Amino acid sequence: MPVISMFYGIVVRMFNYDNLEHHLPHIHCEYQGENGVFDIDSGELITGEFPRKQIRIVQAWIEIHREDLMADWSLAINGERVFKIKPLD
Fold it and tell me: What residue spans define the domains of the chain?
């Protein structure tokens, strides 16, 4: 699963062909052994466990990069290579 960004210890990934289980555009995040799946449209944590502070950080990053994330999502569900997205500074 390609890593599309890393910031503040959070690793953000996007699977290819990953539109069957959750049926909506999403990203997979990992932080210190915790895993969460976030809806790109709303920024909400849809499955998994994630610390509250890191949820807010991921949601802020999604808000800033929603257009890029949707472009990557379109590539990923067709099995194409996704692009890296700038981390939070």
Answer: 3-76
